[in-house]
Design goal:
Structural class: mainly alpha
Oligomer: single chain
Largest sheet: none
Helix content: over 70%
Radius of gyration: 61 Å
Order of helices and strands: HHHHH
Number of helices: 5
Strand content: under 5%
Shape: rod-shaped
């Protein structure tokens, strides 16, 4: 009996007394009541039945909303891509404009340089313009027509006949 009393005391200590047991039983009853409430709601839905047409309409509406959302996202992606391409074209056009402006500046500088060079006269030309030029030719003895004919005959005689 002593052993039995010890075992009962140990069980009582483990369980925590009557108050603890009552509290645990109360919690279990509350959870069972919640489960019964959920089962009752599920039973009501099943008893009423589900309107297939209403479910189909709701599904179609959800699909339509998803489709619209997807189309809007695609439209936004295309718009962003178009903007990116437009910015790239603007950037390239600006580069072309800058290159054209530099080319025109270089051409204008070259034209100015050519004009300046054309305006410049070499120093010899300036001096020549201011002083008269005198040219003297060496004198040659006068040659008559008769001597020309004689010279031509001598040349023929000098060339051996073949």
């Amino acid at each position: 009996m002593e052993n039995g009393a010890r075992v009962l005391r140990a069980l009582h200590a483990e369980v925590g007394g009557v108050e603890r047991v009552e509290r645990v039983v109360g919690e279990v009853r509350e959870r069972v009541a919640e489960v019964e409430d959920v089962a009752a709601v599920i039973g009501e839905v099943g008893a009423e039945g589900v309107d297939e047409g209403e479910v189909e309409e709701e599904l179609e509406e959800l699909e339509r909303a998803q489709r619209v959302e997807r189309e809007e996202a695609e439209k936004e992606a295309r718009r962003a891509e178009d903007e990116r391409k437009a910015e790239e074209v603007k950037r390239r056009l600006a580069l072309l404009d800058e290159a054209e402006r530099k080319r025109q500046e270089a051409r204008a500088k070259d034209e100015v340089k050519v004009e300046q060079e054309e305006k410049k006269e070499p120093p010899e030309v300036k001096e020549a313009d201011s002083q008269p030029i005198q040219i003297t030719l060496p004198e040659r003895p006068a040659v008559s027509a008769k001597s020309k004919v004689e010279d031509a005959q001598h040349e023929k005689e000098a060339i051996p006949a073949s």
